[in-house]
Amino acid sequence: MKLSSFMHFAAFGVKTILFQRKDPILGTVIVTDKCNLKCKHCSVNNITGVVHPYKQIQNEMRQLYDMGVRILFFCGGETFLWKDGERTLRDLVLEAKEMGFLIVNVVTNGTFPIDLPEADLILLSLDGDRERHNAIRGDTYDTIMKNIENAASDNICLYMAINQINKNAIRDVCVAARDTKNVRAVSFNFHTPYPDTRELALSKAEKTECCNMISKMMNEGAPVFNLRSAFPYLINNTFPTPCCQCVVIENGKISTCGRCIEVPGLCKECGYFFVAEYTLLFRGNPKIMIEMLKTYLKYI
Fold this sequence. Notes:
Elements: H1 3-19, E1 26-30, H2 54-67, E2 71-75, E3 83-84, E4 87-88, H3 89-99, E5 103-108, E6 121-125, H4 130-137, H5 141-149, E7 156-162, H6 170-179, E8 183-190, H7 204-219, H8 231-236, E9 246-250, E10 253-256, H9 273-281, H10 286-299
Parallel strand pairs: 1-2, 1-9, 2-5, 5-6, 6-7, 7-8
Antiparallel strand pairs: 3-4, 9-10
Helix pairs in contact: 2-3, 6-7
């Protein structure tokens, strides 16, 4: 991370904590909800199948930038399906960098060739070993691992949503993150139980076991891009929600924190690690602040 970027984020954090401000710093643009997969845990794919045009996304990026957002995510659906004429996802990343965003990340299911060295991080979904990943996402594991091996840069962060199907595969994904070429780290979430996927949710005891395994793998040198000090809050769902410092924009509509905010009662069952980490950070939790500083400087 550049020193100028670090100073900007540090100043934002100090102002937010001291003055209890609710300005956003992290924003996500949904470029499409179209996806080539039908994953068992996903409730937001192929609802409209619309690929949003370049001018609209450009305007949404400017809107987020004017709000103060400096960490930008492009998300889907599947982001690599996005194109408008000759423009591709790379053009969006380059546009965001030129616009002034300090960190630009992309979320993908990894089934398309990964030729995007301009992104700061590519968060790539890997949901277990071959058997359990394929049980969730279809027969895609080998394709994904091949695409990772042939990726243009080492900016990949594996991204695992832990649920009833893959809860015993945390070690496998940590080992993959540690030993696979072009992978920088791994980031975890617990499954957030939308009404149509409630059967995949974890109990408190299961979350505890999962966090214990993640901690064990961290102790063994796995490059985990999460904060251990947030685990007790995630297990007990005692972190404040929603996260006012994060926003999502989809087809012109801005939602605080995420698209799930409008589902009644879902915030109380939130499994997003970053939401816990960010809300605790901007409430001035000292352990979170120290650990986030070390983690972000190491992996971004």
